[in-house]
Structures are given as structure tokens and as C-alpha cells.
Amino acid sequence: MRIVIAADHGGFRLKGTIAKALQAAGHEVTDLGASSAEPIDYPDYAHQVARAVADRTYDRGILVCGTGVGMAMAANRHAGVRAVNCSDTFTARFSRSHNDANVLTLGERVVGPGLAQDIVDLWLATPASLDERHVKRVAKIDG
Ligand code: RB5
């Protein structure tokens, strides 16, 4: 899968760990940064990833900040982007099957690396439901 990933200073460590694991698993991963604790603005990275998913350059996007919240808010400003902030595997699974989420946001200060990787793996592996009721509802998200 073609995956674009980015983080701010609050999420760059977890982002690096996840990017390495996804590459090792055979995914095509593009890491847009950041790569240090130097403070930067999370919306700048969220918008880059959101644009690249909205225009279908990538299949999925992953964004990491301290909480995952700001990244999700900014990414969801883009038409065609369905970003979900996940701290548990149940939400990861159903954000894919019922909502066809195409951007995952994580909080490095919220979830540990083991849970984060489980969330990522499940989120990438779960297909969107083809059930008519879910397809219809997802189509209504952009208004
Ligand atoms: C940075 O301190 C923090 O605000 C940011 O990483 C993120 O949690 C925002 O939603």
C-alpha cells in the first residue's frame, strides 16, 4: 500500500517507529517529517498529508502529534479526507469498515508504541464495508 506519514515534534518518535515497521512489512512509505523535537506547527504537516490522500497520490495517510487531535482537525478540513483519531483497536477497526477512514491520527503522548502499532496494523488491514448502508453514509460525509 502507498502510505504517506508525517508528525510534529510531539509525535516524531512514534512516527519514525511506525514508518520503519511499515517499510519492513513491504509498504511503500513516504515520510514527510518532522524528525526532531524542534517545535513546529502540526497543521502544516496535516495539510500536506491530507492533500496527498485527497488527490489519491497515496492510498492512506498517517499523522502523529502529541494527542492526534490537532492533526485530525486539520486533515478533516479537506474534502475527500476522512481522518480518525484512534487510541483503541475497536475504533481503528470500525473507522475502516463503517467509515472508510483514509487518514489515521495517533497521539504519541496517549498510546504506547505497542498499542499504536496494533492500531496501525488493524487499521491498514481492515477493508471498508461494501454494505449499501455504509457506502451511502460515507458518500454523504462530504455533503
Ligand atoms: C504540541 O505541543 C501539541 O499541541 C501537538 O502535538 C498536538 O497534540 C496537537 O493537537
Number of beta strands: 5
Strand order of the biggest β-sheet: 2-1-3-5-4
Q: For the record, what is the CATH homologous superfamily label?
A: Sugar-phosphate isomerase, RpiB/LacA/LacB
- Summed over residues and divided by their number, the pLDDT gives a mean of 98
* Biggest sheet overview: 5 strands, parallel
The value of Rg in angstroms is 14 Å
Order of secondary-structure elements: EHEHEHEHEHH
- What class, by secondary structure content? alpha/beta
Tally of individual domains: 1
The share of residues in helices is: 40-55%
**Morphology:** globular
CATH fold-level label? Ribose 5-phosphate Isomerase B, Chain: A
What does this structure look like?
The chain is an alpha/beta fold. The protein has a single domain (2-142), classed as Sugar-phosphate isomerase, RpiB/LacA/LacB (Ribose 5-phosphate Isomerase B, Chain: A, 3-Layer(aba) Sandwich), CATH 3.40.1400.10. The protein is 45% helix and 17% strand. The chain has six helices and five strands. It has helices at residues 12-24, 42-54, 69-75, 89-97, 113-125, 132-140, and strands at 2-7, 28-31, 60-65, 83-85, 103-107. A five-stranded parallel β-sheet has the order 2-1-3-5-4, sandwiched between helices. Helix 4 links the parallel strand 4 (83-85) and strand 5 (103-107). Helix 1 (12-24) packs across helix 5. The longest helix has 13 residues, at 12-24. The termini are far apart. The mean pLDDT is 98. D-ribose binds at residues 8, 10, 42, 65-67, 69-70.
